[in-house]
Amino acid sequence: MENTCDAAIKPVAVIILNWQGRELLRRFLPSVVENTDTRISRVVVADNGSTDGSLELLEEQFPSVEILKFDRNYGFAEGYNRAVAAIECSYAVLLNSDAAVTPGWDRALFDYMEAHGDVGACQPKLMSYDKPSTFEYAGAAGGYLDKNGYPYCRGRIFGLCETDSGQYDSVADIHWATGAALMVRRDVYIACGGLDPKFFAHMEEIDLCWRIRLAGWRIVAVPSAIVYHLGGGSLPAVNPKKTYLNFRNNLLMLHKNLPDSVRGGILLRRRLLDTIAWLKYVLTLDFANARAIFRAHRDFASMRKDYTRHPTVNLLGKDRNSRRNILIEYYLKRCCKYSQLR
Questions:
Q1: Distance CA 82, CA 198 (A)
Q2: Would you list the DSSP string of 22-73?
């Protein structure tokens, strides 16, 4: 592992994890360099052993950007864990390589964290890069979990993303912050174990935020900071691998973060709901996604043995957002927007 720049230590490290992403860096890094406040922040690209010319591009066109070189591809979660551990800072920002930032974005997040010592992590307002007036799926204006552990957002319920008309421009306590642009206290990130490498992809930031909240910290959305996210680059929404990861990782997250007193009941309820989803795929002859749900439950049964941490606090049902049943709200009550939820 090599860091090519020994810059003066600043409180914020904006960390972009890269693997074979030369074109994304060429396209999106200029906005990060231009709009990040150099008085408080340094920009670091942590490279997972790329061989596509990413490093040459950085050295030739972005001399102000620090480079943290890894010897191989450690994946998303472990790559970020290694980067956060290696870079000295007070606040780490996990910023996707397909994100474009706006002036003052990092200052708004930093100022809020500095003024609120009980906040462990926060996110900006996340907008679609391709549809700039629309919230982006990966986090919108802040994420929540319902009583069954299903994620939803201010600005996005299931696959429906709202148009931004300023309806969520207030700072809000949330359950989880998007991993596309996540500012987190470095010591909190490390103490809470960072991202879980076993997740591979999808919901790893929700799991981390759950653990941060269990440790007594708040998670907040700061919409005065705005980031535009391309998104959808890893797997299409209908891809069976995405179905598999979403179902498996959601079960793992519930198993890890729920206390013994409620874990069994909630997981049983989820098994019933997932069976309905499986049946829907079967009836529509989508056997690939049906098999993905079956595999997710099979692999969850095997993987849960690797986790022994059993918290005593149940965060599902603690507030109004986590007492909701988002399936009923969306499919039966036809509440397609967060503002319609009661």
A1: 15
A2: HHHHHHHHHHHHHHS-TTTEEEEEEE-S--SSHHHHHHHH-TTSEEEE-SS-
* The CATH number, out of the four listed (3.30.70.660, 3.40.1190.10, 3.90.550.10, 2.60.40.290), of the domain defined by the range 2-229: 3.90.550.10
DSSP codes of every residue in 93-123: EEE-TTEEE-TTHHHHHHHHHHH-TTEEEEE
> What pLDDT, in 10s, does the model give residues 290-336?
999 999 999 999 999 999 877 889 999 899 999 999 999 999 999 99
Coil vs helix vs strand at 312: coil
Cβ atoms of residues 249 and 149 within 8 Å? no
Per-residue DSSP letter, 2: E
Bridge partners, 125 (sequence order) = 226
Q: Are 240 and 291 in contact (CB under 8 A)?
A: yes
Determine the 3-state secondary structure of 177 from DSSP.
coil
- Kindly give the parts of the chain with pLDDT less than 70: 1-8, 232-237
For the chain, the domains span 2-229, 240-340
Residue 307: predicted pLDDT: 92
Q: Report residue 254 as tokens.
A: 């519930």
